[in-house]
Design a protein that fits this description.
By secondary structure, the chain is an alpha+beta fold. Helix content is 19%, strand content 25%. It has a four-stranded antiparallel sheet with strand order 3-4-5-6. Strands 1-2 form a two-stranded antiparallel ribbon. Strands 7-8 form a two-stranded antiparallel sheet.
């Protein structure tokens, strides 16, 4: 049996309970993951308090790093023992699961903001970043720098 954090209602941290669940084997095109590192972000607090609605019961959490425990039929490019984060982003050997679980959403947020501003990958337009103005809330996420909100309208 696997364990997960689940909430049956919105509220204080007391609504978060550890429950046992049967994951079962992966289906066609699926992998089964064992999460060994998770990141906690403000969106998880928003889910718990009802500011970011989810159908209940819910399992909050949007960032994790995992090891693939099993691969179902039709899965190519991944096998048992591979490490992955988020939506099966392969993790390089020099990035620990703990680091991956805490940075991926933030890194993807920065990348999406850059792409929105420049229309091209960061490596090809790095010098344009100074001209880039965006509101990160339009992306559905927030960017932070030194603890202050950095997004600007424009």
């Amino acid at each position: 049996m696997a364990r997960k954090v689940e909430m049956q209602s919105i509220g204080t941290p007391a609504v978060l309970k550890i429950v046992e669940t049967d994951v079962g084997p992966p289906g066609t095109g699926q992998v089964r993951l064992v999460q060994d590192a998770i990141g906690i972000n403000y969106v998880d607090v928003m889910v718990r308090t009802g500011l970011f609605p989810m159908r209940l019961p819910a399992t909050p959490g949007f960032e994790a790093a995992s090891v693939i425990d099993a691969a179902g039929p039709g899965v190519t490019g991944f096998e048992r023992g591979d490490r992955a984060a988020q939506k099966l982003v392969r993790l390089p050997h020099d990035i620990s699961n703990e680091v991956a679980a805490t940075f991926l959403a933030k890194g993807l947020t920065a990348w999406m903001g850059f792409m929105r501003c420049t229309g091209s990958p960061p490596a090809s337009r790095a010098r344009r970043i100074g001209q880039c103005r965006f509101n990160p809330f339009a992306l559905g996420t927030s960017a932070r720098r030194d603890g202050d909100r950095r997004g600007r309208d424009g």
